[in-house]
Structures are given as structure tokens and as C-alpha cells.
Amino acid sequence: QLQLVESGGGLVQPGGSLRLSCRASGFTLDYYTIGWFRQAPGKEREGVSCINRSTGTTYYTDSVKGRFTISRDNAKNTAYLQMNSLKPEDTAVYYCAALKGITTDCLNQRMYPYWGQGTQVTVSS
């Protein structure tokens, strides 16, 4: 069964860092474009970052540019989201998602058929 499992969430103080991991099982990650999305209470789910298959081209929503970095390790079948300089507004459930192939619209959640269950990130003093 195709699965994505997120880990690495938790409670962190403003200015701190977290590294989220997304491990894929049942498929080979290097054939897939990977996206990270988040949903805060009372808000719609939004695209945070994505990395295209093959090209490795990355995209970020404006609010996280310069603070977050998406990457992938195909040998480990895992994608990552390094989050630095965290702010309270980053508090949300973070989801990873995957689609097979490449897209020019990889921050659009409707493009993704495969989703993890999410991991909670709370940024608070």
C-alpha cells in the first residue's frame, strides 16, 4: 500500500528549528514530486513548499522563503522540510504529499493523490 508518514513535529519556541521527515513506503520516492502543506486552526490548507521530480526545482510560499528548505534523499526514500526561524504563525498540522511525475503547479494541493496523516508543529513561547 502506498503510504507517506510524517515525523519530526513538536513544540518549539519562536526562533527555533525543526526538521520534518516524510518517509515513503510502497513506492519509490524519486519518481514523485513532493509537496509540504499545512493547515492551521480555522484556516484552509495551504501549500508551503514543493520539489519537482527529476529537476529538483523547489518552490516556497512567500511567508517561508529564506526560512524553510525542502530536500529529498532518494536513497533513504525520504523527503525533508527544514524549518528555521520559526514563528507562531507557522503553527499548524504539516502534511507531506506526493504525485507521480512533474508539475509546474506543485503548490496546488489538488495535484496530489497521496497524502500523509500529518504532524503537529506548535511554535510558542
Q: Can you summarize this structure?
A:
With 125 residues, this protein is an all-beta fold. 0% of the residues lie in helices and 49% in strands.
Explain this structure.
- The chain has no helices and 11 strands.
- The protein has 125 residues and is mainly β.
- The strands form 2 sheets. Strands 2, 4, 5, 6, 9, 10 and 11 form a 7-stranded mixed sheet that branches. Strands 1-3-8-7 form a 4-stranded antiparallel sheet, with no helix packed on it.
- Strand 7 and strand 8 (78-83) form a beta hairpin.
Order of secondary-structure elements: EEEEEEEEEEE
Overall shape: it is globular
Weakly predicted, low-confidence segments: none
Strand element count: 11
Note the beta-strand portion. over 45%
Gyration radius from CA atoms, angstroms: 13 Å
Q: What structural class do the secondary elements suggest?
A: mainly beta
The percentage helix is under 10%
Please tell me the overall pLDDT. 95
Q: Can you summarize the main beta sheet? A: 7 strands, mixed
Cα distance spanning the termini:
40 Å
What's the helix count? 0
